Amino acid sequence: xxxxxxxxxxxxxxxxxxxxxxxxxxxxxxxxxxxxxxxxxxxxxxxxxxxxxxxxxxxxxxxxxxxxxxxxxxxxxxxxxxxxxxxxxxxxxxxxxxxxxxxxx
Length: 105
What we know:
Layout: E1 3-5, E2 12-18, E3 22-27, E4 31-35, H1 37-47, E5 51-53, H2 66-73, H3 80-89, E6 93-95, E7 100-103
Antiparallel strand pairs: 1-2, 2-3, 3-4, 5-7, 6-7
C-alpha cells in the first residue's frame, strides 16, 4: 500500500488499488474513501491533455479544477490533495507547479 504526501506536503495518506481498478484512500484518523475506476476514467476524459488547477481548498475549489470536479462527481469531501498525488504517482499527470497538474494522455 503506497504512502504518499498530500499535495501541500503537510501530512501523508495511504491508498490501495490503482487508477485502473479504483482506489481506497486512507487519510487523517483512519478515515477512508473510495474512488471507483469509472470515476477516474471520467476524470481523465474530462481533462485529457489539459493543464488544470488542483483546487485543494476545502470550501471553494477553483472552478474547472480537479477539486471542483471531484466534489461535483465523486464526493463533497475535499480529496483533491490525495487524488492529484495518486495520479502523479501512477503517471497519469505531471506536476506543473504547486497549483497545477497536466494530464498526459
